[in-house]
Amino acid sequence: MARSPPITSLPPVRRFDWTNLGLRIASAAVLIPAALAATWFGGWPYLVMIAIAVALLSIEWGGMSAPVAPTRVAAAVAAAVLVAVFVGYRGHMISAWSAIPVMAVLAAVIARGVAERPTDAAFGVLYLAPAALCLVWLRDTQQGVWWTMMLFATTWAADIGAFAVGSALKGPKLWPRFSPNKTWSGFAGGLVAAMLAGSLMAALPFFQLNIYAAAGIGLAVGLATMAGDLWESALKRRFGVKDSGDLIPGHGGLLDRVDGLMFAVVVMAALRLANELGWGS
Questions:
Q1: 4, 79, 130, 273: which has the fewest Cβ within 10 Å?
Q2: Does 122 share its domain with 211?
Q3: Residue 82 sits in the same domain as residue 206
Q4: How far apart are CA 165 and CA 161, in angstroms?
Q5: Long-range CB contact pairs, 253-257, < 8 A, 24+
Q6: Is residue 62 part of a domain?
Q7: Looking at residue 24, what is its pLDDT?
C-alpha cells in the first residue's frame, strides 16, 4: 500500500506591516505639504521643486543603470532633462519637446565608456523629461493650479486606495512576475479612489470642470498611475535592484514614490489639452 505524501504546512500569512505604514505617513506629512505649497505659489518655487526632483531622480537613475559610474550618467541625464524644463518654462514648448530626443542622444554619448549600456542614459532622459515638461505646462494653463492639484489628488488617492484595499483584501496577484505584492483587489480599489478624488475636486465651486468628466479623468489617471507603478517594478527587475534608492523612509527612493505620477501627468496633460479644445467643460 502506497504511503500518503507528508502533509506540509502552509506558509504563514503575511502580516500587515504597521511600521512601514507609519513611515509612509511620516514621509507623506513632509512631502505633500511641500508639493502643494510649491504648486499653489507657482513661479520659481514650483520650478525649483521640479528641478530638485529631476536632480534626485537622475541620481537614482544613474545608480540603477550605471552602478560602476553613476555620477557621470546622473549628471548627463539631469542636465539633459533640465534643458528641456527650462526652455519649456520660458514658454517655448515646441522647442522644449524637440530638445528631448536631441538631449537623449547627447546623454548616451556622454555615458559611453562608463555605462554598460549607454542607451540607458538616453532612456532615462526619455523617461523623466516628458513628465517634468508636462508638469510645467499643466501648471501654466488656465486654472492650472487646480488641474495640478487634481493630478496630485487622483494619483495619491490611487496609491492609497490600492495599498489599503490590497493590504486588506489581498487575493489574486496582478502581475506576480514583476510585482508580487500587487493584487487585483488593490488595482480596483485604486481606480475607485482616483475616480472619487477627481469627482471631489470637480465639486469645488471655483473649479470649472464637469463632475462626470472629472470622474473619467480620475479613472484615466488612476490607470496611468497603476501602469507607471508596474513599469517601474519591471525596470527595477531589469536593473536587479529592490528600490530605486533610500531617500524616502517607507518608500525607498523618490522614483519609488513618483513612479505612478510619471505616467499620470502625461495622461493628465493630454486630457487637459482635450478640455481646452472643448471636451468635458
A1: 4
A2: no
A3: no
A4: 6
A5: 253/60, 254/53, 254/56, 254/57, 254/60, 255/57, 255/60, 255/61, 256/232, 257/27, 257/31
A6: yes
A7: 61
Cell numbers standing for residue 110: 556622454
Mark whether 152 and 107 lie in a shared domain: no
Backbone φ and ψ of 17, nearest 5°: -85, 90
Give the length of the chain.
281
Closest CA to 240 of 183, 181, 178: 178
Answer yes or no: do 118 and 185 share one domain. Answer: no
Cα separation of 38 and 15, whole Å?
37
Q: Which of 18-22, 35-39, 77-81, 125-129 has the lowest mean pLDDT?
A: 18-22
Query: Which element (helix H / strand E) includes 174?
Result: strand 173-175
Burial (CB < 10 A; 0-12, 13-18, 19+), residue 60, is buried
Tell me: do 162 and 132 sit in the same domain. Answer: no
Largest CA distance in the chain: 83
Same domain, 127 and 46: yes
- Domain match, 79 and 102 both: yes
Asked if 138 and 268 count as a contact pair (C-beta separation under 8 A), the reply is yes
On the 0-12 / 13-18 / 19+ scale of CB atoms within 10 A, 97 is middle
Interval 198-249: pLDDT, tens? 999 999 988 888 899 999 999 999 999 999 999 998 898 888 888 787 766 5
DSSP 179: E
Same structural domain for residues 49 and 176?
A: no
Q: How many CA atoms lie within 13 A of 221 on its CB side?
A: 34
Please tell me the total count of domains within the chain: 2
Range of the domain at 205: 142-281
pTM of the model: 0.86
